Amino acid sequence: MDYEAIIGLEVHAQLQTRTKCFCSCSTEFGAPPNSNTCPVCLGLPGALPVLNREVVRLATRAALALGCRINRVSQFARKNYFYPDLPKGYQISQYDKPLSEDGRVMIPVDGSSKAIGIIRVHIEEDAGKSLHDGFSDSSEKSYIDLNRSGVPLIEIVSAPDLRSAAEAHAYLTELKAILEATAVCNCDMEKGNLRCDANVSVRPQGSKEFGTRTELKNLNSFRFVQKAIDFEFHRQIEILESGGRIVQETRLWNSDEGKSYSMRSKEEAHDYRYFPEPDLLPLVIDEDYRQKILHTMPELPEAKKARFMKDYGLSMADAAWLASSKSASAFYEETAKLTPHFKPLLNWIKGELTAALNKANQEIETCRVTAPHIADLVNLIEDGTISGKIGKIVFEEMFAGGKTAAAIIDEKKLVQINDAASIEAIARQVAAASPENVAKYKSGKTGNLAWFVGQVMKATHGRARPQVVNEVMKKVLEE
Predict the structure, then answer these.
(1) Tell me, what's the pLDDT at 414?
(2) CB–CB of 76/93 below 8 Å?
(3) Parallel, antiparallel, or unpaired for β 214-219 and 249-254?
(4) Which has the closest alpha carbon to 130: 117, 121, 119, 141?
(5) Is the pLDDT of residue 409 over 90?
(6) Helix H or strand E encompassing 477
(7) Which of 340, 312, 341 has the alpha carbon at shortest distance from 329?
(8) Can you spell out the DSSP letters for 10-38?
(9) Rounded distance, CA 18 to CA 37, Å?
């Protein structure tokens, strides 16, 4: 039997505020344990929460960017559960009256766009962090760091519209681009600023009924999200095929082993005993406030993608890749002012530059290769001064030392040989040195032309222009 996956994602994004959700403690990452705390975020008796105005602004901005309807009145609620890193014994969140509902994110799928529904975007505070050490017979210890307790989050709950791990990755990529473009969240997953849980179930192809879902936790990279969903998809199919049944549960993803383990039975809303937060008034957002936020909205990735396709003639896939990164798109547009070769320019940024940045663990903003560097390199390749192969050598030198392409080409004498007469002399030498291959070519095995071209390129150290070499070599062989 063929099965399909039904996937919904719950994403927690930390808002870029200087202070916490309900107190004035700093949200600084990396501070000494339990130093960014006060009676409010420690849950001490008598301490009362006060809502951070910037939290409301950023949460509203994110919800509008995701196409959500902003509810005029929303209500904070207490979500009760007992963990060592939750000092109050409850988390201030939103339940039946969230900030916003009914949005959508467009993702690229097979050359077209697919709408993924957003059920809700609501505000909540983060819990603290448990740190475990030892776990031998004699040295097992756990520590609690409450610096993160009370840090402001938005939870973005998607509809179960995703059908594969690849679609989940595309959705997260688009969501990250929107959050970065609006300056709502810096999306640094290593610091826990963007976290994802995945709800996964399977059903027979063509069925309208949803299967029993499981929730995957501890997904701290987009790559692990894909791997975890794929694992869970096949795990559930194996259980069903063997006559078993899926148990609704929360599972913890182990990235080292590439598998998930049962963590606990899945909680329902009633398990949390939600009730309205008595220490906070309902949040009222009027139309004037909504319009004010809306009018300060920057260009969003979806609109940017459409503009890149129109202005630069890029494909949907290339435009989507570029629009997904705020820094890469800014670099591309700056460089595109200096060269008319828009598609080759994208290929260099998407290929060589991105690979070099990843290998060096650098950001594009701090790279020695600037927009004029890349534009000059692309122009020199496109006008035939150097070949694409030589261009890669030049790029490596540029990235390592920050020199211009022209300086490197002049210093290493890398100018491309375009003169047909010079290339013909070398082509005749190559043909004379291999009469057997010449005979094969003349007998109809013309596929070995590539071998001759390769020999000429080798003899010129890659400097001969490939198009000219092809034409000249073919002429020499057919004489």
Answers:
(1) 75
(2) yes
(3) parallel
(4) 141
(5) no
(6) helix 466-478
(7) 312
(8) EEEEE---SB-SSS--B--TTPPTT-S--
(9) 14
Give the long-range contacts of residues 111-118, CB within 8 A, separation 24 or more. 111/316, 111/317, 112/316, 113/316, 114/161, 114/167, 115/161, 116/158, 116/159, 116/161, 116/162, 116/167, 116/171, 117/158, 117/159, 117/161, 118/66, 118/67, 118/68, 118/156, 118/157, 118/158, 118/159
* Residues 196 and 216 sit within 8 Å (Cβ to Cβ): no
CA–CA distance, 398 with 405 (Å, rounded to integer): 7
Joined together, the tokens standing for residue 314 give 């890029």
Mean pLDDT in residue range 305-331: 93
Q: How confident is the model at residue 373 (pLDDT cuts 50, 70, 90)?
A: very high
Phi–psi pair at 145, nearest 5 degrees: -115, 115
Structure-token pair, residue 75: 């209500």
Query: The tokens of 324 are what?
Result: 């997904």
Which DSSP state fits 247? Answer: P
| pTM of the predicted model over 0.85 | no
For residue 45 the two structure tokens come to 């008796």
The amino acid sitting at 389 is K
In this prediction, residue 66 carries a pLDDT of 97
pLDDT band of residue 135 (cuts 50, 70, 90) is low
Q: Specify the residue for token string 């969501």.
A: 175
Q: How far apart are CA 140 and CA 143, in angstroms?
A: 10
Please give the share of the chain, as a percent, with pLDDT higher than 70.
98
Q: Considering Cα of 267, then 268, then 273, then 279, what sign does the dihedral take?
A: positive
Find all residues with CB under 8 Å of 234, minimum gap 6, and list them: none
What CA–CA distance (Å, rounded) separates 457 from 408? 20
Q: How many residues does the chain have?
A: 479
Q: Closest Cα partner for 449 from 441, 461, 457?
A: 441
Q: Which amino acid is residue 9, in one-letter code?
A: L
Q: What are 71-75's contacts with CB under 8 Å, separation 24+?
A: 71/97, 71/98, 71/99, 71/100, 71/101, 71/285, 72/284, 72/285, 72/286, 73/97, 73/282, 73/283, 73/284, 74/98, 74/99, 74/100, 74/122, 74/282, 74/283, 74/285, 75/276, 75/277, 75/282, 75/283
Give me 125's structure tokens: 């505070």
Q: Who's near 319: CB < 8 A, 6+ residues apart?
A: 305, 306, 308, 309, 312
Residue 113, strand partner residues: 108
Q: What SS3 state is found at 140?
A: coil
